[in-house]
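Target protein
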Amino acid sequence: MTEPGSSLLVTDVTVGDRPGRAVLVDDGRIAWLGDGADAPTAGRVVAGDGALLTPAFVDAHVHATATGLALTGLDLHSSLSLADALAALRAHVAATPSGIVLGTGWDETGWPEGRGLTRHDLDAVVGDRPAYLARVDVHSATVSTALLDRVPGIADLPGSHPDGQLRLEAHHAARQAAYGAVDTAQRAAAQRATRAAAAALGIGSLHEMAGPEVSGAGDLAGLLAIAVAEPGPRVLGYWGELAERGGLEVVRELGLAGAGGDLFCDGALGSHTAALSRPYSDRPETAGHLRFDSASLVDHVRACTRAGVQAGFHVIGDAAVDQVLGAVGTVVDELGRAAVRACRHRLEHVEMADAAAVGRMRDWGMVASVQPAFDAAWGGDAGMYAERLGVDRALATNPLADLADAGVALALGSDAPVTALDPWGGVHAAVDHRTPESGLRPFDAFDAATHGGWHAARAEHPQGPLGVGAPADLALWATAETLSAVLAGRARPACRLLLVAGVPVAGPGA
């Protein structure tokens, strides 16, 4: 393994569209980049053999423990029916005869049975074991009777249902109980699995979106400790808890990148919990739910801005987007536009944003942390979004081109385990948007998946990710094509070598 501080030269690589290049890494940073014929000497040389070299990907929205548990446990994303999901559950229970049963990824949209899982379905398979099976959007879940019994008073919480299908506050309480039952060893194994999977895909950094309703401070602290002690992708931690509830104290104690991320201001479209300005088309009795009063959001933005801390918010529906932007606008009036812009506050998902919202984000220097795979999975005129919102509103979701053209900074992520870790897939989904005029230009999409993540974390290098002095987070791909050709052909080349701070963490020598 190359130790930090030693020099490494990667020769005969294609950088962007220019073949025959070389890059020197020293002390974890890019020390030189130029024509291979002029390359300096180094302690170690890696022959690129004409392969494509790029900045490593940054996944700007991840839940590492839940992703690792899905990678190593019960993953229901491929279940095409209720019967399929129950068969997968039955096999998983047989293979893991003790402990809590955790799964994620089921999506009843299109299932021939016309319904999702209930606790009675689960009880028939798991018996008296606690079980938590999250819907694909992770904003609702079906749980077993044994898990319900572990959460006193859950039947009285908003979103509770006798059939075990939980939403809103009931779901948050059940998720806390479910992941609280995972022991330390299982958590660490899941986190390592996520980092290993990310490294194999050429992802050099993960933005971990933690919070009291997601994974807990102990979970986040353990993940950060692993990332410091073991080679692999960087982990930048975010904590989604209001300042009035102690969120800023956690940020300071753990040295986190920001106070937000999955600070859930609303839910998800699939679970009918994203907050809309007009009711859902398929459930006109509801327009979703805002989780906080506006005064609490103003207090949070104000406290973060005064402290120079980046705030972030989970917002999917247009009502949630407008509520948060209203709070930011109040703080702009109080503390000034420059103070707010300096914090580079983030909106996560921001799937429904009109021209006025986009303009405010631009004016206030905000970041849109987006997941193009959402559009690929559920967008278009015949997908789940069309079912929930009607065709017109569905085609206006995820306005990536509007954001980019307005000058709003974009960072691409997966929201794994909601969608898979798949950086090339995310780039291509951003280009091939189901609403064609909403797609990004190929190089803009790639930039948002690499440099965009550094910008979103307020850690970008002035000369860009390939500038001299930038952190040597680089990916060498198993292709001799140029970046233009890879993007044009929608290729997904395998990662041949990943360097994080100049250290090989995937591929030969890792």
User: Anything to note?
Assistant: Residues 81-180 form a domain with the Diaminopimelate Epimerase; Chain A, domain 1 fold (CATH 3.10.310.70). The chain has two domains: 81-180, 187-456. The CA atoms of residues 252 and 258 lie 9 Å apart.
